[in-house]
Amino acid sequence: MRFITLLLGLALANGCAAAQPIVIKFSHVVASHTPKGKAAQRFKELAEQATGGRVTVALYPNSELYKDKEELEALQLGAVQMLAPSLAKFGQLGVREFELFDLPYIFPDSAALHRITEGPIGRDALKKLEVKGIVGLAYWDNGFKVMSANRPLLWPADFDGLKMRIQPSKVLDVQMRALGANPQALAFAEVYAALQRGVVDGTENPPSNFYTQRMYEVQRHLTVSNHGYLGYAVIVNKKFWDRLPSELREKLEQAMRSATVYANAIAEKENADALERIRQDGKTAVHHLSAAQKEAWQKALLPVHQELEGRIGKELIQAVKREINRPHLR
Questions:
Q1: What is the DSSP string of 156-175?
Q2: Residue 4 maps to a domain
Q3: Per-residue pLDDT, 299
């Protein structure tokens, strides 16, 4: 009888263990109410619903677990299973194709951008992550960037000598130097304090990040330049992903597709709303470039494309431009 009781106990214990949900730790560095934060929440809801609770997505926003420089290593080591880092991060891994997304003034609008992220060029870039132990699932928009500082940035000469915070990115480094600024690479979580203390003079961000990180409290001027794009790749640890049952992967992929549609739909509105809130707050003067000023910015920045052809790939940059400029039915 004791032996039978022991077997029943083991069976029950195994049954309880089998019933434990698979946990996906999803870490990111921005606030929960940003476009990325909201998209991550939507993915969590869809994934848990689609899998009937067999998968739980644990969200860690605002660098709660890892900062910019730490999160990719944490994913590769399996300390977290999912991230949505900015595309600039992948150049540090040696996957330089992603650096094309940092090129200034390469995407005239969101429609042109999506021809790349949703087409073969974008898919091929994600596939190149697999040799790094990473599976790329989707691209999520944040939006086009603005510039900020404590003086108006209307002409390239206005950047002269400014210390401008950038993400660690060779392209962004060259971009700021082309404007006459001194680029300073800092983790996103450190930017507010660096601006407040004068460690850096200004930065670039989509309006949603500028607003949710309260940078309007420590920056007196903002220029709606739309000079560059900030987007993310949603990625998972490859060993973890490959070990999932195939039916769960399929459900998670469907949840990710739906979350991506949502993410990219809200990004433009979220940034427009954030810009309006910044205006209403009144601490930061919002400037829009005139046609002549924008032309001057482009004249200063477009040579960055040619300068970085040897790093990113001349053929890749040309292929992107051909696809963007190809006539499309509307």
A1: GGGGTT-EEEE-S-HHHHHH
A2: no
A3: 98
